[in-house]
Write a structure and sequence with these properties.
This protein has 391 residues and is an alpha/beta fold. The chain has helices at 3-8, 29-45, 47-53, 55-69, 82-90, 109-119, 139-145, 168-177, 197-200, 226-229, 266-282, 284-303, 330-339, 353-358, 375-389; strands at 17-18, 76-79, 100-104, 125-129, 150-156, 181-185, 204-208, 220-224, 242-246, 249-252, 308-310, 320-325, 342-343, 345-347, 364-368. A 7-stranded mixed β-sheet has the order 2-8-7-6-5-3-4, sandwiched between helices. Helix 2 (29-45) packs across helix 3 (47-53), helix 2 (29-45) runs antiparallel to helix 11 (266-282) and helix 12 packs parallel to helix 15 (375-389). The radius of gyration is 21 Å and the shape is globular. The two termini are 39 Å apart. The structure holds pyridoxal-5'-phosphate (PLP). Pyridoxal-5'-phosphate binds next to helix 5.
Length: 391
């Protein structure tokens, strides 16, 4: 990995110290170029005509993403974000009264809101799997909770804060022993961690383009395992997902594109495709190694600063670091850092309510590193945080 070359590919690294990769990463130049080129063609030749002319490269996106997560192209659906992808999967499951949903302590707000929304219509049971001593979803507890009424195991792989990486592969082993569905929110892991849907053993997995994949905003995708597609009926379908065949009938597609809409942001998709290719060229194992190394360094250096507390959990930790500064709010820390050209974000209680409540936390500063960040940026970052603590 030649960090200088990778940074040269990333114009944003000249302007800011970007530690908000869990929010939206800086795009490499080739990604932005692909988006702009495509948009420009649309403006010059027409949107439909440009799509017709570029059909082959648009199609390529499905196999590029598929290859990246070890799936077939017909198992991929392109959607506008991870939430849309996740909801398409979740609301396609046929739930009946008495069904149980097992989920993680660190579940993302939007997913949990959907469980609650469903519960208003179907008498399901939402149950939270306890954490183990490392703070990750306990595989032992999950085993004990399993029975024939478990309809769905729904897990966030890497939560939006806290560094945690949940043991999705081990959870997959359990899911496969029972006749239940397994849905993984891989929003923070795809592009950072070597996500392999076969190794995870999940039926469905959702991801976004703009975070660790370094794609454009407003892009995302859903993976659905081939033999599960037929059992999953999307909550709404359009003329792309299904064919209207008679006054009383329709015929739905049999690939994952039944979860898509007809209208798409093709320019964004062209950018997403390039982003996945770019990550694939570097190699996801190389990326993961570098991200965890930088993150570990930042975590330790922050923890050593007086007045700073790091709040990360998990046996294995990824690129997301969360911390607080004594008597200075997370928002204030963010504002201060921003003045120095440093980007971070904050995590509120409401984004991972159960985890925050359990650990008695409310607002955290979230610094998330990517492979293109450097050790020198970590030094500068820690100095800046030190200055904040002295105010
Ligand atoms: C960001 C995030 C989401 C939502 O992704 P969108 O692309 O904004 O819909 C879902 N789950 C987790 C864990 C996230 O961090």
């Amino acid at each position: 990995m030649n960090i200088n070359t990778l940074r040269d590919d990333t114009p944003g690294t000249k302007n800011v110290i970007h530690f908000n990769n869990a929010g939206a990463s800086l795009m490499p130049r080739v990604v932005t170029k692909n988006v702009i080129n495509y948009l420009s063609k649309e403006s010059q030749y027409g949107g439909y005509e440009t799509a017709d002319k570029n059909r082959k490269s648009i199609e390529q996106t499905y196999s590029t993403i598929g290859k990246f997560i070890n799936a077939y192209p017909d198992e991929i659906a392109l959607l506008e974000n991870a939430t849309a992808a996740w909801n398409m999967a979740f609301f396609s499951i046929y739930f009946s009264d008495g069904d149980r949903i097992l989920t993680s302590k660190s579940e993302y707000a939007s997913n949990y809101l959907s469980y609650l929304r469903l519960k208003e219509k179907v008498d399901i049971q939402i149950e939270v799997i306890p954490n183990d001593e490392h703070g990750q979803t306990s595989v032992t507890s999950l085993k004990k909770m399993m029975d024939k009424n478990v309809k769905l195991i729904s897990i966030t792989h890497i939560p939006t804060n806290s560094g945690l990486v949940n043991p999705v592969e081990k959870i997959g082993d359990i899911a496969q022993k029972y006749d239940c569905s397994y849905l993984v929110d891989a929003c923070q892991s795809v592009g950072q961690y070597p996500v392999d849907v076969k190794k995870i053993g999940c039926d469905m997995l959702s991801a976004t383009g703009r975070k660790y994949l370094r794609g454009p905003r407003g892009t995302g995708f859903l993976y659905v395992k081939r033999d599960q597609i037929e059992n999953l009926l999307p909550p709404f379908i359009d003329l792309h997902a299904a064919k209207w065949t008679s006054e009383q009938e329709y015929k739905i597609r049999n690939d994952a594109r039944r979860f898509e809409n007809w209208e798409m942001n093709y320019a964004g998709i062209m950018g997403l495709q390039k982003a996945v290719e770019y990550a694939n060229d570097i190699g996801i194992n190389t990326i993961w190694k570098r991200v965890t190394k930088l993150a570990e360094k930042l975590r330790w250096q922050l923890a050593e600063l007086p007045g700073v507390t790091v709040h990360d959990i998990g046996e294995i930790k990824g690129g997301i670091i969360t911390f607080t500064v004594d008597s200075i709010s997370a928002q204030e820390v963010k504002k201060n850092l921003s003045k120095k050209g440093i980007n971070v974000s904050t995590s509120s209680k409401n984004s991972t309510l159960l985890d925050m409540q359990e650990r008695n936390l409310s607002n955290l500063v979230r610094a998330s590193v990517h492979y293109y960040n450097t050790e020198s940026e970590i030094e500068q970052f820690c100095n800046a945080v030190k200055n904040v603590t002295k105010q």
